[in-house]
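All the exercises in this workshop are built on plain-text protein records. Sequence and backbone structure share a record, each on its own labelled line. The structure tokens are whole numbers drawn from a learned vocabulary of backbone shapes. The record below serves as our worked example for the rest of this section.
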Amino acid sequence: MYFIVGTNTLGGVAADGQLCQSGEPLYSRGVVLGLSVVDEVRDLRERSKRTSATLALGRAPAELWPFFSNSDMLNHRSRYGPLATRYVPRDEGTPLVVAAGAAGPLEFEFVERPHSFVAPRWLEVDRPFLRGPLRYVGYRLALEPREGGGTRLEMELRWVDRYGWFPVGFAMADRMRRYLAEFQRIDEQITPGEEEAPWGPFLADRAQHAGAIDGLARAWGKLAKDPAIARAMAELVITAPDPYVRRIRPFEVAHAFGLPPLEVLAFSLRAVRAGHLDMRWDVLCPSCEGSATPASHLADLEPTVHCPGCDIDYGARFDENVEVTFFPVARVRAFADSAFCAGPPSKIPHVRVQLVLEAGEQRTIALDLPPGEYALRDELLGLGSSVPVTIAEGGKEALSVRLGERRSGEERLVLAPGARIEAENPGSSFETLRVQRRAHRERAATAAQVTALQVFRDLFGSEVLRPGLRLGVSNVTLLFSDLKGSTALYEERGDAPAFALVQDHFAIMSEVIGRREGGVVKTIGDAVMAVFTRPAEAVRAALEILEAFHQWNRARGQEEQIVIKLGLHRGPALALNLNDKLDYFGSTVNRAARVQGQSEGDDVVLSEALHDDPEVREALASAGPLEVTRFSAELKGIGELGLVRIRISRGTGVV
């Protein structure tokens, strides 16, 4: 096990490249360093000087935790300088993070070990320094509920001075003072009982920037149906700190300001086309949720990505971990891509418990988790070792975990709320244990969802995957349509009038599909292939299309009648570049086309599996009187498949 440092000497480091005193070599530009520097934390902690303080706050620990655990923003607001970080692999476990910075003329470098924490109760971190006036700094924060409401906060700073003459105590007292002032400010600013946006208490004063916000909101007004969307985005871009401006998540903005998510996404796409914003495609790591290699265009995506922070390779899944985010162009808002803390817990909000154990350490902690689905992960064993965990009444009261040992015979663990984890690290270096939420991307605008929208396909038709690249989509709903009697239509009316009628029918379908969160993938003669990421919206679109053409036919003569045939199916597919358009390929596509072939006209045929989806059943139940018929059919090249035919009972429209 090893990590890399610069050319400064420390303890057992020899600038001539000789072995350090521990006998475990590490080489970097002629420097050798033993692992002992990282694993001497227990000794450093025991002989450290300490200062602590307590604070009574009005908000509950759960309300304060998202912001008090954001040491990146706390350091930034406390006017500490940015850090440069790099990752260094170890033989086992996750890589080490080495951070470097400066305090005035004094440069420093330290190892940012992972934080230990149990959200929302406590966190602590130990930082052994490789160079600078300090040899070690430790930080602990505890949030305890007060009787009658509120929180008792206790903060502790620990340090070991390297030289003896540097006024470290004064510096630590200053840091304590700045942090406590920031804690007090956040407690007073957040709204009790309401979920705050991640940037909530860190925004600049809106009143001081009112003119800039008003001007930007006016300039963006034509890009959104609702002026509140333009104002919300303007407010965020003008007043939010750099980390939240360089990675704007439209669904997060929508949630924070109470706006329709897809309308905020559509605004963002239009703002890119208008030159106000830019977008990128983040391939999220399944462990840390970070994006090490964002792509400016779909064509730049790689099928396999490496996360240096977790030292794992993982695949890009179009509907799972490829997310579109936005940022303003330089003339709208300049921002720096700087970090002020190398590994704050706020960067991994899906992780609710993270426990760092020293070599040979045994430790017991109590979980403070609401009922739900989680995963237990031993970082020494890697991503594939995750064990599903359910927190529920009646579960086990305690769980023993020995790091580095795989659990056998247990497919799922059920733990009671407040259960204890008794963890042991038998290894020779510190290791990490995590408990994390299993569903934590509800506010990610995935590539599958974005590229399915008609507004995206209209604005960014040239945004495609590079030739030959195919990315998996776990679940996509496809709609195929056809015109009944289209051959006779051309024969009876002539090419030009029939073509005009077909184009009118395309316009009606595109409008409905776009309004229902879908997008037209392509037209084939007089047929349409459309894609949706939400099956219930696909079914609603199909019913609205039937009703739209029913109304069309009522208002026109016999020679302009349009009878539409529709089919829907869902399943996994491959997203790919076909004829310079984003298209889909696979058995799901073939089945959807074959399902449409069973339509008789003025009806929609669903595969039985799609019809039985709970959200689809709910959509159908709220759609007004329908005629529903189950049947099975032999589909060419597929075999027998259960199907459902749906017609609208005429006399009432679709609700």
Notes: The CA atoms of residues 74 and 91 lie 33 Å apart.
